[in-house]
Amino acid sequence: MLAFLKNILNIILPPRCLLCGKILSGENGLCEDCFSKIKFISKPYCQSCGCPLSCGTKAKTCATCVSDNKNPFRMQRAKVYYDENSKPLLINFKFLDRTENAPFLARWLLAAGHDIWEQGVDILIPVPLHKTRLRHRKYNQAALLCKELSKLTGVPVDYTSLKRHKNTKPQVECSGSRRRNNVKNAFTVVSADKIKDKRVVIIDDIYTTGATLKECGLVLKTAGAKSVDALTVARVLKE
After folding, report:
1. 205-222 burial, b for 16+ CB within 10 Å, e for fewer?
2. What tens digit of pLDDT does each residue of 51-64 get?
3. pTM value?
4. In this predicted model, what pLDDT tens digit does every residue of 215-229 receive, in sequence order?
């Protein structure tokens, strides 16, 4: 019955491409033209941070990860390059109330995290918004991604243990070291018993410098997490 009703709804309101609005023959999210423009992150990539490596390289870890002795993450992964083609999909979702993009983007998260799922995961945690910004935006895009990803993986979501207690400036208004300083000491774990000895995955939409994710990871590790991974839909990468 549900399938029948869904088919009727698709006739009345056919699925459309999330980017250009073209009517789709199936529920693929993007039309062929828009999909072909998306640049996906593929191997070889750093086993630690997931940053693409030069083809033919024998290295398994990038130079940044080799020298970073304060990295809290077991692994970091993203599915696509954040560029002019993927940007509208994420900006519309994050700022323009296109929350219907969440199920599609969660499928990209699922694919991006295959290395992480193989190692085992106990809980998903969204990067939290401060309550002031949440009231203004009405929703946390990372929490919506967690909800949809949980449906796909069966891994539960913890929405409450990690809190952002400082109302920091939006990271887009900062650059370089200012991003790190902006989020320093901005997060706290309020339910350490729920985190202790757990394999945690932090979820967000976009990895820019990684400052926010790293700060969250450090706090979760301090609270006793067995491991912390970071998973985002897109990542800013230099060609």
Report:
1. bbbbbbbbbbbbbbbbbe
2. 999 877 888 999 88
3. 0.89
4. 999 999 999 999 999
CA distances for 142 relative to 89, 230, 239, angstroms:
14, 12, 26
| pLDDT tens per residue across span 123-140 | 999 999 989 888 888 999
Q: Does the residue 27 lie in any domain?
A: no
Task: Find the length of the chain.
Answer: 239
Q: Count up the domains in the chain and report the number.
A: 1
C-alpha to C-alpha distance for 207 and 41, rounded to whole angstroms: 13
- Sorted by sequence, the CB contacts under 8 Å of residue 131 that are 6+ apart come out as none
Tell me if 48 is assigned to some domain: yes
What range defines the domain where residue 186 resides? 38-235
Give the ranges where 96-170 is alpha helix by DSSP (H). Answer: 102-112, 114-119, 131-137, 141-153
